[in-house]
Amino acid sequence: MSNSKVINLKRRPSGTPTLADFEFTTAEVPTVGNGELLLRTTYVSVDPYLRGRMNDVPSYIPPFELGEPIASGVVAEVLESKHDKFTKGDYVTGSLAWKETQVAKPDGLIKIDPKQAPLSAYLGVLGMTGLTAYFGLTEIGKPKAGETLVVSGAAGAVGSVVGQIGKILGLRVVGIAGTDEKVEMLKSDFGFDAGINYNTTDDMTKAIADACPDGVDIYFDNVGGPISDAVLFNINKFSRTINCGAISVYNNTELPKSISVQPFLVRNSSLMQGFIVFDYADKYPAGIKQLAEWLQQGKLSNTETIREGFDNIPQAFLDLFDGKNTGKMVVKI
Amino acid sequence: MSNSKVINLKRRPSGTPTLADFEFTTAEVPTVGNGELLLRTTYVSVDPYLRGRMNDVPSYIPPFELGEPIASGVVAEVLESKHDKFTKGDYVTGSLAWKETQVAKPDGLIKIDPKQAPLSAYLGVLGMTGLTAYFGLTEIGKPKAGETLVVSGAAGAVGSVVGQIGKILGLRVVGIAGTDEKVEMLKSDFGFDAGINYNTTDDMTKAIADACPDGVDIYFDNVGGPISDAVLFNINKFSRTINCGAISVYNNTELPKSISVQPFLVRNSSLMQGFIVFDYADKYPAGIKQLAEWLQQGKLSNTETIREGFDNIPQAFLDLFDGKNTGKMVVKI
User: Fold this and answer.
1) Closest in B60, B270, B273 to A267, CB measured
2) Who among B228, B266, B274 is closest to A245 (CB)?
3) How far B262 CA sits from the closest chain A CA (Å)?
4) In A213-302, which residue ranges form alpha helices assigned H by DSSP?
5) Interface pTM (ipTM) of the complex?
6) Which of A81, A115, B61, B166 is a plausible cystine mate for B171, CB 3.0–4.6 Å?
7) Where are the domains of chain B?
8) What CATH topology corresponds to A128-278?
9) How far is B115 from chain A, CA to nearest CA, in Å?
């Protein structure tokens, strides 16, 4: 019997979360029962969608309970197995609690191969992040070579993969990000055709028009808010907007208002569709296969911001809202 | 050589159009050339989308020219034909100028049968109105029997047909309209399951929730604005919103703002899609066939508000924005 560090949700954040919303504590690790695994956390994924689960609002996944551990995508090492499909030394990934050590049933956990790719990639380009980019762009965006794709939050975890897949599929790809360094990196590291720094651009509508001389056919929207309003003025007939997230408004305490999208959609016979990656769960194996192939061919890079230390998980999460990550933010334990 | 009354666009309306935006004049009717028809206007369709063409803004159809006749859906009698597919006494429908008499090439005109249905029905349930309802609901809404459909502008031309088709396809149908009389008529004449008068309802979000105990699977949106905001709070996972029009904001002189739809779409994996009926032009024959069949079976009614007199066309158009029509507004000449 041993103890493990645990991070609980202490209170529901009002607006932007702070460290005071989290509780650092310890809990006893139970003994491993039949069919269970003892797991040591290796990498923890922090993601903007977790903010939604901190509210007491029904959504696609239930809210976190107050005083209970937060959970997210985790890579863990099997320390002890009482399940016949897993052995000591295996690595697994799936949704697990923010605990240094825990006992869990392997339902929903996938065994992963540290030789095929670095372990952290399974939280990034080969994990929910990569699959979100892949299914959103291909299933909703329905890209055709030669079309123009705009990506907001382009230097973020999902956005940077979306842009790379866009290039693989023959699109003109324009990324929107918040610093000159990120914009430069979109072009130098990820092969974007153009980038826009929304923090130094007065007229986003015009900047998007300039970067997209043939208009916008596909918009992969990670942010919502004023940036997405500006894209609306540039959408083409039959364009598709993929609503992946709305990080710009997640911390609003009042219901956010934007330009009415309806007249733009009517005028352009245009589509907007929200999704979460779980909608495509039955296609995960095909998605991972395609992404792993591109990764091994060097067409896709796994860009990460890695923080270290269990105690730094909450701060890494908070930093997402200040755009301090480039690519996928993970915490190495 | 004779003269014909004509209605031109005199100036581009600012906000809500007024009679002063129209010019009543006369023009010479040219002689009929080879391949042309001399046509006498019998019925004129007035439609909210014409408001958009009065602005000098590029859209799916070009704007009207100042000092030139307005055009809309028209039923006309052939007075003289120099085209081998048409003879004197035929009736045709298509987009024609607001002129009592005109000479036109028959490109885009369809010959119609006054024995199959009343002539005005070809501007309504068998015309663009019916096809708009049919293709929007079936192609974008993808209805499944047992689902719940909400229709805004439900007593209007398109909305009343949408609701009826919804009932034919086995949906629970809830309509939103602006008077108690209209709400009553939705239920008594069109078979809607429930109706909401938005002018006498304080809490639209709650009223929609009450009328849709299983949530909203399909929203056929003719209005945009606050009514559509209220629907958002009630949409189901994988719901579809059909953006057919946004009459509530067409006359706004400032860019209208609404609740940001993006977080709702993400949270519910929900779709919104705009369209115009021309997107489905290759399927018109199949659509008209289906609608005519339902009309003849008595499953679908052609509800009209008929005004009389060429000079009353502009007023009939203006009255659309005050909701003075029930079903399709047409002017009999």
Assistant:
1) B60
2) B266
3) 6
4) 225-232, 262-268, 284-296
5) 0.81
6) B166
7) 2-124+304-332, 128-278
8) Rossmann fold (3.40.50)
9) 35
